[in-house]
Predict the structure.
Amino acid sequence: MTLKKAHELAPGGIITEPGNSQEFKTGDWREQRPVWNKDNCIHCLFCWIYCPDSSIRIVQDESGKWRMDGIQYDHCKGCGICAFHCPGKKGNKALVMEREEK
Ligand code: SF4
Ligand code: SF4
């Protein structure tokens, strides 16, 4: 591997293109991932409220109610906040963290 010279590196702390964070897949360096068990989900949306990376997908059902619809893994960093706050059903969590298999 050839190392880059200092003048070839991207300058730190500078946003060269506005609005490009969507393209930066922060999920690449995740060590754990949340796994959703929909059978234990009560659709409280605590996970959606607490997720710092907007990685919880939600959809509206035919009655207009918002419901949990899974996880968008491109930007999920595996922090585990969603699983920590998930109440689940009767003590059985709907979100649990599992080791990421690369
Ligand atoms: S916090 Fe848990 S129970 Fe609530 S919507 Fe998310 S996955 Fe479902
Ligand atoms: S692990 Fe963290 S980043 Fe990923 S969905 Fe849960 S709260 Fe969001």
